[in-house]
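Researcher: Re-running this chain for the archive, since the previous output was lost when a drive failed. Same request as before.
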Amino acid sequence: NIYITKANTVGSHISFDQIKNLKKLHLIQPALDEYHILFPTKPSQLTHLILENPECNDNDRIILIDEMEELIELNIISEYSIQFRSQYPRLEKLILSQINLIDLIGFRTFFPNLHYLDITLTGTDIDFDQISIPLLTVLKLRSFNVQHDICENFLLNLPQLRELYYSNEIDS
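Model: Regenerated structure tokens:
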């Protein structure tokens, strides 16, 4: 396990290519523009990654573009919404402190092997016919200012669920 804080990333020249057997990595306050430098460019053994409070400079969104094919578990703790643009074919467990409803649309493509999802949803109405996560069996769903019927429609697209934890907070 390696824990890196923002103070350790001064200069943005850290590379984990030499640490071939690294399996777990916990980055605290990494800068978004450093991600492509921090993550291995060669095939790696990295299977577990935690990003805690990553910096965000893209319209209050965190956009992950790095392909990490060996990753099995990803945990992103942030006050910003997260968006994915790469596929994580082996990822089984995903924990996101915040995601917009619209960003769930690509989950079937980005996470074809996803079994466990722990998320806090934000956003507005969406066509849930576009959202499918066929292998998902465990869902921990928190929603903030999302109408209950919207969450219910999302859950109706997941008939294979075996475990569901659900809470919904709506400001009046």
